[in-house]
């Protein structure tokens, strides 16, 4: 069971939408939600200003850009992303240990320039939209959970603060990475919510119970008739579980 404050710190609302919708949701959720996710759809349309605007409204921001490029480029991109004020940034674990190390150097560069806390890094393991068949299609023939374990160990060993994985791997990752690692889980669906394009899912309470640190929840909240009540229902579930 979580306290109300712990539950609110555990839920990241995914603003995978246009600016007007994002601002409307932020206005309605301001003072209630603690975290929002700015992903590629919103960031590529609006640029760094949208991160600053969410920060100005009092939100912590998970900038979900899934950086994946040569190490030199990723260091520069991580620095630039961190300078927006993002609290959390995603990179791809498949980019190699050197890429992860350079991403860490990039956010440390930014912290030295702007002062304050360093942007934390989480490495994508296997996307929650992928299943065993999807992995095989790109030439990875090991079980999903083994690939997640391999990428998680490598990424955290190279300087990431944690990983992004499905709720189904959360318990395994908590055991592997220890109590301090960030384990961020998309693919979270409250009871009765549509599955959508996610393949490896769980409810909020079961994901936290398995060891997740933070839950990324988008459409079940953002497309609800009453997004505030949908968010509060998730908080209540986490407090009552």
TrEMBL record:
Q: What are the record's GO terms for cellular component? A: cytosol
Q: Report the CDD domains cross-referenced here.
A: OMP_decarboxylase_like
Q: Which residues form the Orotidine 5'-phosphate decarboxylase domain?
A: 10-234
- This entry's Enzyme Commission designation comes to 4.1.1.23
Cross-referenced Pfam families: OMPdecase
Oligomer status and interactors: Homodimer.
Q: Which SMART domains match?
A: OMPdecase
Q: Which UniProt keywords apply?
A: Decarboxylase, Lyase, Pyrimidine biosynthesis
This molecule's function is given as:
Catalyzes the decarboxylation of orotidine 5'-monophosphate (OMP) to uridine 5'-monophosphate (UMP).
Taxonomically, the superkingdom here is: Bacteria
**Can you state which reaction this protein catalyses?**
orotidine 5'-phosphate + H(+) = UMP + CO2
Report residues binding substrate.
Answer: 16, 37, 64-73, 128, 189, 198, 218-219
The answer to whether keyword Cell membrane applies is no
What is stated as this protein's family in its record? Answer: Belongs to the OMP decarboxylase family. Type 1 subfamily.
Q: Return the protein name.
A: Orotidine 5'-phosphate decarboxylase
TM helices/strands, residue ranges: none
In its UniProt record, a GO molecular function of this protein is: orotidine-5'-phosphate decarboxylase activity
Q: Where is the active site?
A: 64, 66, 69
State the gene name recorded for this protein. Answer: pyrF
Q: Extract the Gene3D superfamilies matched here.
A: Aldolase class I (3.20.20.70)
Q: In which pathway does it act?
A: Pyrimidine metabolism; UMP biosynthesis via de novo pathway; UMP from orotate: step 2/2
Matching HAMAP family: OMPdecase_type1_B
